[in-house]
Design brief:
With 116 residues, the chain is mostly beta strands. Helix content is 0%, strand content 55%. The chain is built from no helices and eleven strands. Strands 2, 4, 5, 6, 9, 10 and 11 form a seven-stranded mixed sheet that branches. The radius of gyration is 14 Å and the shape is globular. The model has no long low-confidence stretch (mean pLDDT 94).
């Protein structure tokens, strides 16, 4: 079992920055993908960014150039650096780990609110 612990959410003004952190308990062997999803009121949960254990990344078009995902495999930690935040980025952000296509683990979510 993998437990994901998130931190870094908060309230910021438009144009500001936040860095989200997600730490996975224990070690994860083999192929895995860690990523960040978000869900705003009235909207479906959507992928924001993801990064594989090999370092390959994928971003939603809406955040390209503003957000950067990174990870440290030794620490089982993934970060999401969010710059130039916009009010439309306001959502609950969830950390996810997909492990060997068999297990999906989700964090409890952290609120990001961007004021105008």
């Amino acid at each position: 079992q993998v437990l994901l612990v998130e931190s870094g959410g908060g309230l910021v003004q438009a144009g500001g920055s936040l860095r989200l952190s997600c730490a996975a308990s224990g070690s994860i062997s083999g192929w895995n993908v860690m990523g960040w999803y978000r869900q705003a009121p009235g909207k479906q949960r959507e992928l924001v960014a993801a990064i594989s254990s090999g370092g390959l990344t994928n971003y939603a078009d809406s955040v390209k150039g503003r957000f950067t995902i990174s990870r440290d495999n030794a620490k089982n930690t993934v970060w999401l650096q969010m710059n130039s935040l916009k009010p439309e980025d306001t959502a609950v952000y969830y950390c996810k780990c997909s492990y060997l296509s068999r297990y999906d683990y989700w964090g409890q979510g952290t609120q990001v609110t961007v004021s105008s």
